[in-house]
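Just curious: can you write a single protein's sequence together with how it folds?
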Amino acid sequence: DAMRFGRDDEARERFAAAIELDPQFPVPLSGMSRLHATRGDVAGGLEWVQRAIAIAPNRAFYRARKGLLSLQLGDTATAVRSIAEARQRAADNVFDAELLLALHMVQADVAALEEIAAGRAGAGFGAAQRAFALVALGRNDEALATYDSTRTDAAAEIDEVLLDDWVWRLPHAITRARLRIESGDAERARAELLRFEAHARARFEAGIVSGDIRYWCATACLLLGQQQS
């Protein structure tokens, strides 16, 4: 909670106290990783998560986080290995699936993206992930239809990120709105973006801090501004 409300010093002290109390407990090590990475020290975040992996080598989440941080540092080879190790331990985890999807996009792996788009990549890849793969493949009409084939809610998407912001997610609500604008349905896209922005603003006014949601909101504002110009 301290990190969620931007109280970084308090969070750091709590993690440090927990590590001192039990150096073999991996959770505060992972917390330190998140604290460093989300505040711009990605290399430091990687060092902390490697310590968590050394203690809990079978925990898929820590390996997935190592993959994400390695990808952010441009170390694609390590990212590939770490994400594959995470998938071996939690094959149908949707959050690891989104990270793998991002990796395929970075690698421009068309064959892998087509497998995801076709629904042949495993249960972790739902309609939203298939839609994003279709966007990466340039098949935007199919992507919008796929998004619309399942119930989506921007407010719920924001809350999922804020309530469990230790994992990484793709911006499906913003992507869907952009596709809707491109399809000619700007009015519906504008309504969706305004709801997204209002819900995010309410969370920020409550004191919650999230770099990911602020970035998504900036993108929403950009799309809204383009519609007004």
Q: What stands out?
A: The longest helix spans residues 186-205.
